[in-house]
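Regression test case RT-17, inverse folding.

Input:
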């Protein structure tokens, strides 16, 4: 098919393979076009058992394909040595079937599955090669129609079957349209050869082989002396049914059948011992052999007892030990403390003396932490299973870095940083608003692994279970009641609810799930095989620090029983800064709040104070001049997300009172007098974001699957109306300009949140404001400047010229607000003159709490 070169991708720092095909194959433009279509389709596949395709192009009239570089041997070379054991055959066949299932799910059929297109890497991973190349290599004549067969010899010995004729399905021989069941037939022919050492339809010529495929059954795989499980033979023959309707109907069915054989022993061996030859075999046992067998049995029992005694003795020596690792003097704000699977290393994100945030690496038995170079802006680190690599998020990309001195490699683009997990098949799962996505640890195009339900807003914080196929994760939702820990599998996008929780979750061997409930780290026994909770919840530690947004909490666990976490409170301090980031002072006491709103005269702030269970409990008004607070709402339901009226006399807020799982809009006098009035009630959640300066309109988010921007008239007709809506992306945080002629808002239509401006009333005019991520836009009172936070929590400013035309300047940095404890919604404010900024500063940002490491953490559970 051409020549293959080993090459280096200098952009992503990885070795690749480049297959260059002969220019003669481009003569037929129709075939070349179909080849390009199929190769491009193959490039969308992302599965550990399929060769990853990185690029497709043309060089000097010769097409080429760039793919991952494999080291090992083809199955043709492997099978040249004869049949392989049933155990290995089942393992290899299961991997092939999984790869086919992934391709078939994308409606991609291989059409040329054969030992030459199967590769075994040095670490025993099977890769399916050359999706899409079969059509290019088919004969130019119509002798076999759509059979897609190659005509080159695999061997040159006399009488050897030519090309891939021996692996074709009956449908291909008949030149009728084929579907995924054709690949299953070819798979059966390969599996037959793996366990028998010969081909299923080997004849002296191609024509005779084609006739055998159509009319003859393959020879029996083994005789009475064979150790091939009959159940495995039945799987092979079921794949090789002539009629497609009688075969396995999907590769997923084949996977299920093979997985059920993993522990099957040879029934033929049992028949030999228990059948007609049982008596002669028994007679061959003499007294000497019986004595030897008895002695061996006694030694085995004694050895087992000693081994068990040694095991339990060693286990009793695994005492609980709790260590406090102080933060080095040269770094600040450590978070995302993550222990390696082997329990010997810790990585965390922290800010150095120059104010730059990196990943740091520290052996548990060392007093020194070292920064990992070129990891600026890193967040949410996670480890490879062998503890040799660290994955992390930065600048809307997923990276990996080999430790201790490797260079970061980009794996793919991401929409947000909400956790990732890495299995031993080099599949990485990561969270996002469309569901969990999976990508190869070598890089490539991510594909969705789960799909969110109507009540969910994202799937976040995945964690692989021991089998490397199933995983647990958080189904993040719009309301507290709809948050759930879920279980999924790489084999399907469908997931199942395990239990309700609002936290990232991890699996800890030998059988526990860890997550945070009402600020405490808790654990529950979990059977990773039955996928069921098997006991009651126990508390492990209290006051676990929260990291950023989306229910991320600062804890991790290794496979060796080492637990790490950071203590923190949920209190934040209202803190004033100037435009350079200089701290000007604080306001009030540290408390637990979310969603602040500054009054129009900047003399007061409305806060949604959070109660102990983590919900917005009540709205309070803090007076900066007097230093006093009044309670605006007293309902036991969750009240929060306040917005001021333009004259500062009223506050609109969201409340879950009188609803089941939804938040509706209420209004009340800002001085606390009078009763709340219901503004809007519906079967979806609404969160107010801005009240126009003339008092006529209220902007609010309406959550119906995706967040939409709606408007409510505050005078005249009270009916709500949609302004910006889409079923594909979220549009949030809309704010009126001071003159009411524009609105700024956040949209993730580009794949990550950015700030935009549109005219009001809404027209087709639209201007992007942020670059490289942005959210929470705020206007200066004169409308000449717009502020927002980027995804690294840096305060940005943009000059605005608005009138009959609209012009925006280039975003520029005011100061780094990475110490800000992001709680969602409106958690920063700016004074009307744009000179002072009010931030909710985490208490832990001022005083770095030590990192806690617990050795043999499960021993502590036994003492409770």
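Golden output:
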């Amino acid at each position: 098919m051409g020549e293959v070169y080993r090459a280096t991708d200098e952009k992503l720092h990885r070795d690749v393979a480049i297959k260059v095909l002969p220019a003669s194959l481009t003569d037929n433009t129709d075939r070349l076009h179909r080849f390009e279509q199929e190769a491009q389709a193959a490039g969308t596949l992302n599965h550990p058992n399929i060769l990853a395709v990185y690029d497709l192009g043309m060089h000097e009239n010769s097409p080429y394909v760039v793919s991952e570089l494999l080291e090992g041997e083809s199955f043709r070379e492997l099978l040249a040595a004869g049949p392989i054991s049933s155990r290995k055959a089942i393992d290899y066949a299961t991997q092939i079937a999984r790869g086919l299932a992934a391709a078939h799910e994308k409606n991609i059929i291989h059409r040329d599955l054969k030992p030459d297109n199967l590769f075994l890497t040095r670490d025993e991973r099977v890769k399916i090669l050359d999706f899409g190349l079969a059509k290019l290599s088919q004969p130019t004549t119509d002798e076999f129609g759509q059979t897609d067969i190659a005509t080159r010899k695999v061997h040159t010995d006399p009488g050897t079957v030519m090309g891939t004729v021996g692996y074709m399905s009956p449908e291909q021989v008949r030149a009728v349209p084929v579907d995924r069941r054709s690949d299953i037939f070819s798979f059966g022919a390969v599996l037959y050869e793996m366990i028998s050492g010969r081909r299923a339809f080997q004849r002296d010529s191609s024509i005779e082989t084609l006739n055998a495929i159509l009319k003859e059954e393959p020879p029996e795989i083994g005789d009475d002396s064979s150790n091939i499980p009959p159940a495995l033979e039945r799987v092979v023959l079921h794949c090789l049914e002539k009629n497609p309707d009688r075969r396995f109907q999907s590769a997923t069915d084949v996977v299920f059948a093979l997985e059920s054989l993993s522990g099957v022993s040879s029934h033929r061996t049992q028949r030999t011992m228990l059948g007609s030859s049982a008596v002669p075999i028994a007679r061959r046992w003499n007294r000497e052999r019986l004595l030897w067998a008895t002695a061996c049995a006694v030694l085995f029992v004694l050895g087992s007892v000693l081994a068990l005694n040694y095991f339990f003795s060693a286990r009793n020596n695994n005492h609980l030990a709790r260590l406090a690792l102080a933060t080095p003097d040269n770094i600040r704000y450590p978070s995302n403390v993550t222990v390696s699977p082997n329990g010997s290393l810790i990585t965390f994100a922290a800010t150095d003396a120059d104010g730059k945030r990196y990943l740091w690496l520290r052996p548990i038995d060392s007093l020194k932490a070292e920064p990992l170079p070129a990891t600026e802006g890193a967040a949410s680190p996670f480890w490879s299973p062998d503890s040799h690599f660290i994955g992390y998020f930065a600048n809307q990309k997923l990276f990996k870095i080999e430790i201790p001195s490797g260079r970061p490699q980009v794996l793919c683009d991401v929409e947000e940083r909400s956790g990732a997990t890495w299995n031993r098949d080099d599949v990485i799962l990561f969270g996002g608003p469309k569901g969990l996505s999976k990508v190869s640890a070598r890089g490539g195009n991510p594909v969705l692994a789960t799909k969110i339900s109507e009540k969910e807003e994202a799937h976040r914080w995945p964690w692989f279970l021991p089998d490397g196929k199933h995983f647990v994760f958080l189904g993040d939702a719009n309301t507290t009641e709809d948050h759930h820990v879920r279980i999924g599998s790489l084999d399907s996008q469908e997931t199942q609810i395990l239990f309700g929780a609002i936290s990232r979750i991890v699996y800890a061997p030998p059988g526990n799930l860890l997550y945070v409930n009402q600020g405490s780290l808790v654990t529950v026994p979990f059977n990773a095989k039955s996928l069921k909770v098997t006991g009651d919840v126990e508390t492990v530690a209290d006051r676990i620090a929260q990291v950023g947004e989306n229910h991320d909490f600062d804890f991790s666990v290794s496979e060796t029983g080492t637990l790490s976490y950071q203590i923190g409170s949920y209190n934040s301090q209202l803190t004033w800064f100037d435009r350079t980031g200089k701290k000007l002072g604080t306001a009030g006491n540290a408390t637990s709040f979310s969603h602040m709103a500054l009054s129009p005269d900047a003399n007061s702030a409305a806060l949604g104070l959070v109660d102990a269970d983590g919900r917005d409990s009540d709205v309070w008004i803090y007076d900066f001049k007097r230093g006093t607070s009044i309670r605006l709402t007293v309902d036991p339901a969750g009240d929060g997300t306040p917005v001021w009226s333009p004259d500062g006399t009223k506050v609109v807020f969201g409340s879950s009172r009188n609803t089941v799982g939804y938040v509706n809009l209420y209004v009340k006098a800002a001085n606390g007098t009078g009763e709340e009035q219901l503004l809007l009630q519906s079967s979806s959640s609404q969160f107010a974001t801005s009240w126009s300066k003339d008092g006529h309109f209220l902007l609010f988010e309406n959550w119906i699957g995706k967040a939409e921007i709606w408007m409510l008239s505050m005078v005249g007709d009270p009916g709500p109306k949609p302004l910006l809506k889409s079923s594909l992306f979220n549009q949030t945080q809309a704010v009126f300009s001071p003159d009411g002629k524009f609105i700024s808002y956040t949209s993730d239509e580009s794949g990550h949140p950015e700030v935009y401006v549109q005219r009001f009333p809404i027209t087709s005019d639209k201007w992007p404001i942020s670059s490289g991520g942005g959210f929470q836009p705020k206007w200066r009172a004169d409308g000449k400047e717009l502020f927002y936070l980027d995804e690294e929590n840096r305060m940005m400013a943009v000059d605005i010229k608005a009138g009959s035309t609209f012009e925006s300047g280039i975003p520029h940095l005011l100061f780094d607000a990475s110490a800000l404890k992001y709680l969602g919604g409106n958690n920063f404010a700016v004074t009307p003159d744009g000179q002072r900024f009010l931030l909710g500063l985490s208490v832990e940002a001022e005083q770095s709490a030590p990192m806690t490491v617990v050795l043999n953490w499960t021993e502590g559970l036994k003492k409770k």
